[in-house]
Backbone:
């Protein structure tokens, strides 16, 4: 579903991704962990060309992602949930969900609203459809952002540290929604620091450090019996 | 024996006997200003948007437009259209020159206002829009520009005020606007005092409510909202 081939990324002199090779299968839940600055966010942002790799190739749904086709290909295949929610503040919750379907996917308005309500119900915010995002708590905003991603009914949802900007007490409500999603046949790539979540939903975990993939494996292997010293060190710090 | 005081009552009486002349000029000024504001807004939005695009050539064109019209006197631009173009065979009515001259001149300032407004929108908004597959023009239209309106309304209104005052440049090419009418009356009747004061008052009646509204709106915005305002008063004061 997504494939990165020898992806390198430089920010100026800074080499942030070093020869990343990675494949995500359809329906797979891939969790990427690692210390900050390890390149995990950049990796996931290369998957929809929010960052264009300096070299290497990205394939999405069998097609190579290029500057030329990125808008069209992304519009048909993937959605993203951001650390800082990035809801559209001038639109109501419902309009946040229907904007892309109506304007980009040409879904009739009535149908788009119907779908939007369905996804708002899934994230448990049906009663908030007519309010503006800034009146909601962080956790609620992020659940709306997830509903917005769902409303475009894409095969892939990319999550870039979806709980990192939240108050501790609202993290769980967002994770609960994501756990619910993980039961569906959606391809999910999640960059996160939530190890409990990773262990529960991941089909595969990737550990990145200093722009490289250090280790990958099933969560059981990964959390209980990691091979690499660097992974052990990281886990020992993060799992108390 | 009439008093020779320049503000003597009889001078006022004589002038108000000619109120139709002032009325015509006042109407002409309003017409020119209204059309020029529309032109300035259209130019300002177009050039403001392209000056934030990734295309270097488009940005260059916007830059040249802004710098040229901001750094040459409006009078020269108007004289050029009136005399220069006429020699080249293009004869425009003074009304058209008024609308084009003042509109294009203020379009350059509006463009800078729009640009600053766009820059004040958090980058996450563009990223969210891109991740959904919006094109540049689409996200400007549906997501970015609607959010800037609230922020740029006060500086835009100040531009409108400046524009209204600057239509008085038409007096120099016999534009039959308020300033021209006042000046004609003043020089034919020698009632300079009442004539200029009355014309000034009419300009004030147009501009003061707008300027006051803009100031109040901006104060309210600052009080109620955490929106970052990209404009400060000092910066606005020098914009023409």
Residues:
């Amino acid at each position: 579903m997504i494939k990165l081939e020898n992806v390198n990324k430089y920010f100026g002199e800074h080499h942030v991704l070093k020869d990343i090779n990675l494949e995500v299968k359809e329906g797979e839940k891939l969790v990427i962990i690692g210390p900050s600055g390890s390149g995990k966010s950049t990796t996931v942002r290369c998957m929809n060309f929010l960052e264009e790799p300096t070299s290497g190739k990205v394939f999405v749904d069998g097609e190579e992602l290029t500057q030329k086709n990125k808008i069209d290909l992304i519009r048909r295949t993937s959605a993203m949930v951001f650390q800082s929610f990035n809801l559209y503040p001038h639109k109501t919750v419902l309009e946040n969900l229907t904007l892309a379907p109506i304007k980009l996917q040409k879904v009739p308005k009535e149908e788009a609203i119907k779908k939007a309500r369905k996804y708002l119900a899934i994230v448990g915010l049906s009663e908030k459809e007519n309010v503006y995002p800034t009146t909601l708590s962080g956790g609620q905003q992020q659940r709306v952002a997830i509903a917005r991603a769902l409303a475009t009914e894409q095969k892939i949802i990319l999550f870039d540290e979806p709980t990192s900007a939240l108050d501790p007490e609202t993290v769980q409500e967002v994770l609960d929604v994501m756990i619910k999603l993980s039961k569906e046949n959606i391809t999910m790539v999640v960059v996160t620091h939530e190890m409990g979540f990773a262990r529960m939903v991941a089909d595969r975990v990737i550990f990145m450090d200093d722009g490289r993939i250090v280790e990958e494996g099933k969560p059981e292997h990964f959390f209980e019996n990691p091979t690499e010293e660097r992974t052990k060190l990281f886990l020992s710090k993060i799992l108390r | 024996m009439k008093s020779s005081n320049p503000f003597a009552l009889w001078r006022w009486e004589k002038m108000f006997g000619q109120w139709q002349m002032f009325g015509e000029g006042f109407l002409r000024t309003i017409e020119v200003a209204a059309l020029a504001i529309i032109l300035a807004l259209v130019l300002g939005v177009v050039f403001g948007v392209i000056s934030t695009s990734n295309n270097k050539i488009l940005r260059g064109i916007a830059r040249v437009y802004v710098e040229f019209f901001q750094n040459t006197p409006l009078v020269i631009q108007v004289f050029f259209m009136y005399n220069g173009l006429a020699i080249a065979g293009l004869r425009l009515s003074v009304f058209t020159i008024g609308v084009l001259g003042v509109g294009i001149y203020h379009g350059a300032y509006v463009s800078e206002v729009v640009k600053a407004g766009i820059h004040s929108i958090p980058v996450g908004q563009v990223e969210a829009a891109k991740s959904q597959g919006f094109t540049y023009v689409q996200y400007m239209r549906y997501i970015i520009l609607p959010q800037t309106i609230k922020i740029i309304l006060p500086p835009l209104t100040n531009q409108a005020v400046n524009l209204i005052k600057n239509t008085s440049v038409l007096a120099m090419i016999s534009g039959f606007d308020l300033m021209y009418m006042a000046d004609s009356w003043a020089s034919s009747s020698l009632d300079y005092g009442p004539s200029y004061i009355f014309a000034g008052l009419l300009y004030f009646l147009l501009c003061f409510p707008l300027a006051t509204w803009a100031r109040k709106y901006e104060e309210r915005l600052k009080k109620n909202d955490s929106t970052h305002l990209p404009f400060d008063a000092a910066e606005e004061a020098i914009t023409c």
User: Anything to note?
Assistant: DSSP finds ten helices and no strands in chain B. The domain at 31-175+214-236 of chain B is CATH 1.10.3720.10 (MetI-like fold). Chain B touches chain A through 16 residues (CB under 8 Å). Confidence is low (pLDDT under 50) at residues 233-240 of chain B.
